[in-house]
Structures are given as C-alpha cells and as structure tokens.
C-alpha cells in the first residue's frame, strides 16, 4: 500500500496519528507533490487544528491545484471567516471539473455558506448524480432547491430521503415548513410515527417543531402549542440558557451609548448599505425583498460582517461574537477602521452591480450604535410587529438549535423579556439617531403597501420604483423560514396570529403590560 493510500485509509478509520505519520512521510519523500501536504492538512483539520491545517492545504494547492484540495481549503477558510478567499477557492475548484461527489458537495456547502444558493445548485446536483443514495448530499440539494424557489424539486428530494430513512428529522422539518399544509394534505400521521420512533433529543426537537407547524396550519391550535411547549422546555434545559446572558449584553450597550455616540474618529461617508433589522419573524425578509426589488439595490443576505468586525477590532478573548466584555471594549474602536473592516467583509457577498445593497441580519439592531458611528450615511429600517405576534412567532420557529442569537426563544417568558429589552434599546437608538433609523410597522405595511413602501424608499434615499410592489416576483434565493411567504403577494394572514393561543400566551402578555408595553 502506498503512503497516500495508507494516509487515506487511516483518515477513514479515524486514526489521525497514523494518517499524519503516513502523510508526513509522503510529504518528505515527495516534497514537490501536493498529496502529502494535503493529507497532513486534512489530518490537522480533523484534529481541530484549523489554523495549522490551512497553510498545509495552501502548500498543496501551490504545488498544483486540484479540485479536492481547493474545495477542502475553501471549507476551512469559511470556518476562519475568510469569505473572499473561500469563494475564490470554491469557484476555482468547480472550474477544474471535480470527479468525486464529496468534492462537489463541499463546493456546494461553501457557496451556500456564502449565501450563493443559486450557484450551489450545480455542485449539489452533481454530488447527487454521482452518489444518489447518499442522503446528506441529497438533503443539501433539497435545501438549495427550496431556497431558490424550486419547491416541487425540493419536496421530491425530501420524500426520497424519507423513503430511505423514515425518521430523518431534518427532512421532516424542512418538508413541513416548505409550504402551507391543509386538512386534506398534511404529514401529521407520518410525523407522529416518526416522533414515536426517534431517540435523539435534537431529532425529537425538529419533529415536534414540524408537528407544531402542521397542526397550526390546519387549525389544531392546542396540539400545536403542546408540541412546541414540550420541544422548547426540553431544549432550554439542554442548552442551559439563562436570560441573564442576554441582559448582560443589553446592559453593556446601554452603558456605552446612553450618553450619545462615543465617537473616536470620523466614519466612512458616502453611499452606504441599508440595514434591515429587528426581532426575527417580524417582516425583515419581506422588507429586504421589497428593497432588493428596486433597480438600484441588491440583497447581500444576512451578513455577519458587522458583528465580526466589532469583535475583531474589540480584541476580546471570549469565543462569543457578542458579550458584555466585547461591547465595553468596542468603545475604543476607531470608527473609520470599523467601517473599513465591515465593508471589506461585506464586499465578498455583494456583486457590486448596483449602487446600494441590503444587509438583512435581524440581530444588527444590537449594533445600531456601531453602524451609526462607522457609516453615518447608512440607513436603518427596523421592523416592528405587534408584541404578541412577535413573541408567538419567535417561540414557534426553530432558528438554529445551537445559535446563541436566539437562545431566548425556547421560553415564552424569556422571549417576552427579550422583546422588552429590544423595545427599550430601540427607543435609545431612535433618540440618538432619528434621521438614520426608521421604525416600520409590519401591520401598517400590510395595510398600506404602497404608502409605507414610498416612506421607506424616501428614508433610504431611493427614488420610487414600481418593481418594489411586485417583490413576490423577485427570483433571488431566500434562506429563512419566510421563504414561502415572500413568494406570494403581500397579505394579512400573519396579523393577529397569536390570538389562536391567547390563553397560553396570557402570562407573557400580562408581564409585558407591567413593563408599560401595550400588548
């Protein structure tokens, strides 16, 4: 067996020490060839040593680019948040015509992480064509199909997965949220069977969320709430969340900004991005689609560019992107440097074919002070929705079971507390930067689409464009739970949805009223 075959066999068996030994011997014996360096890098990456792995993979690519090597390098660069280099490596790998399913799938995953879901379709489809029985590859293709509006294709792929694996929780959940279910056509019996069969907590979480969504679609409010309550109670216990974690962040932001902007330098003037912010599930995707239907605006997606730029320049050692320590340290960040760091990261997600772009990360409402300092000409649109609809919609949606941004959403009272702090923080931002921040009512937008759209465009410094009223014809990909809704004309279906669960939500409503919030 050759040294390369030995290293690959050891990697398959999880023998990282053996893989590194064989790969090291290969690199020493053939220093002008890429294989040894590539396999050393893969072994280092498998051991969690990403910073060590990247130079080894770069050394392999420098000795003669191969699709597999470039794809794995792109995958690691994404983990290091080096998005531009990752995009270049992934696209070069695709251009070199890979031969194996794993490389195609890796390229697709990198492009999807970059938000280019349309481009991810081709490599994902190639991976499935090469290995049609691999359910991971097929799931990735199904998800990309759904994000890009190919709902029939997505549904067919999910059904193929479930035919092979009837308790595949990710496929069950994805199929449930793909479209509106009816009393005549739903998956409730199949989901009940899957729930009875699963043993892993994360699988049960997803299937209960799927059941809750389908029960709500068909009008079974009590069953929907029962499944949500069971899922969320269990998940909150598993992640050990305490609202104090988020309270610390809000406290730190208010301490830093309550006396106004702690300006350290001049920010970046001129044409700036449009930030669409707010609590999730309040209409941010709808507004992003309206704005990006404008002839002068493109959608860059939900960028992590501002949180990562603040974290990088604050220089705090914690592993969390935002915490009290990072917010406090960000006072000393130079506004011009912050603008440059943000725009450099954002540029990797912008085609730059239009003068303006939207950044639709809802949690950027936490960073409005930093945005206003760094990009004083930026415009911010904050979505506001009925408090109870906001709380219910947050509670019933699975945002990402390990995402720290939305850990509050697994408990009704935590969600109410979070809403109250969001409301208080938005009052602060509005008082400090009234010209930069527009608070837009979801209900008002639904009731008067053209009037509110005109107001929003004027705030953003954009001329009127009729295309904004036909946002549902926008064919760009949507990778949020709102994907199905924003492909339909504007409607009032989601207004006052919380009233179907009025009794269960009563404690949260009563608490909000004690905080002076009209709910």
From TrEMBL:
TPR repeats lie at residues 101-134. GO terms for molecular function: protein-tyrosine sulfotransferase activity. Keywords: Plasmid, TPR repeat, Transferase. The keyword Cell wall biogenesis/degradation does not apply. InterPro entries: P-loop_NTPase, TPR-like_helical_dom_sf, TPR_rpt, TPST-like. Pfam families: Sulfotransfer_3 (PF13469). The keyword Transferase applies. PANTHER family: PROTEIN-TYROSINE SULFOTRANSFERASE, PROTEIN-TYROSINE SULFOTRANSFERASE 2. This is Sulfotransferase. It comes from Novosphingobium resinovorum.
């Amino acid at each position: 067996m050759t040294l390369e075959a030995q290293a690959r066999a050891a990697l398959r068996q999880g023998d990282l020490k053996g893989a590194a030994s064989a790969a090291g011997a290969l690199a020493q014996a053939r220093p002008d060839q890429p294989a040894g360096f590539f396999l050393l890098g893969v072994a280092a990456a498998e051991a969690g040593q990403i910073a060590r792995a990247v130079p080894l993979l770069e050394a392999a690519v420098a000795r003669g680019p191969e699709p597999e090597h470039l794809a794995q390098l792109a995958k690691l660069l994404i983990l290091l948040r080096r998005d531009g280099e990752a995009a270049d490596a992934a696209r070069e790998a695709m251009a070199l015509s890979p031969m194996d399913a794993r490389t195609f799938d890796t390229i697709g995953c990198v492009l999807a992480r970059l938000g280019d879901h349309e481009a991810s379709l081709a490599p994902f489809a190639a991976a499935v064509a090469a290995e049609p029985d691999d359910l991971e590859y097929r799931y990735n293709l199904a998800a990309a199909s759904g994000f890009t509006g190919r709902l029939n294709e997505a549904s067919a792929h999910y059904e193929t997965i479930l035919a092979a694996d009837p308790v595949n929780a990710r496929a069950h959940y994805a199929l449930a949220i793909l479209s509106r279910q009816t009393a005549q056509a739903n998956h409730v019996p199949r989901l009940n069977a899957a729930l009875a069969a699963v043993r892993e907590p994360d699988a049960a979480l997803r299937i209960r969320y799927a059941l809750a969504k389908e029960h709500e679609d068909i009008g079974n409010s009590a069953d929907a709430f029962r499944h949500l309550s069971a899922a969320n109670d269990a998940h909150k216990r598993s992640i050990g969340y305490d609202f104090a974690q988020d309270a610390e962040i809000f406290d730190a932001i208010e301490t830093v900004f309550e006396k106004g902007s702690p300006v350290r330098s001049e920010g970046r003037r001129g044409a700036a991005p449009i930030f669409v912010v707010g609590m999730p599930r309040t209409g941010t995707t709808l507004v992003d689609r309206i704005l990006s239907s404008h002839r002068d605006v493109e959608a860059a997606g939900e960028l992590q560019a501002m949180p990562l730029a603040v974290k990088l320049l604050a220089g705090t050692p914690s592993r969390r992107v935002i915490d009290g320590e990072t917010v406090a340290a960000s006072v000393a960040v130079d506004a011009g440097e912050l603008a440059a760091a943000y725009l450099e990261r954002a540029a990797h997600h912008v085609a730059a074919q239009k003068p303006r772009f939207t950044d639709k990360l809802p949690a950027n409402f936490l960073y409005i002070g930093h945005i206003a300092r760094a990009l004083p000409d930026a415009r911010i649109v904050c979505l506001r929705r009925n408090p109870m609809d906001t709380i219910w919609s947050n509670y019933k949606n699975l945002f990402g079971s390990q995402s720290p941004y939305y850990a509050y959403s697994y408990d009704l009272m935590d969600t109410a507390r979070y809403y109250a702090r969001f409301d208080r923080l938005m009052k602060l931002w509005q008082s400090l930067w009234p010209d930069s921040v527009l608070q837009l009512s979801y209900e008002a937008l639904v009731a008067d689409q053209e009037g509110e759209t005109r107001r929003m465009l004027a705030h953003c410094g954009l001329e009127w464009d009729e295309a904004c009223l036909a946002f549902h014809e926008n064919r760009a990909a949507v990778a949020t739970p709102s994907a199905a809704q924003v492909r339909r004309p504007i409607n009032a279906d989601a207004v006052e949805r919380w009233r179907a669960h009025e009794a269960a939500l009563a404690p949260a409503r009563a608490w909000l009223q004690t905080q002076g919030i009209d709910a």
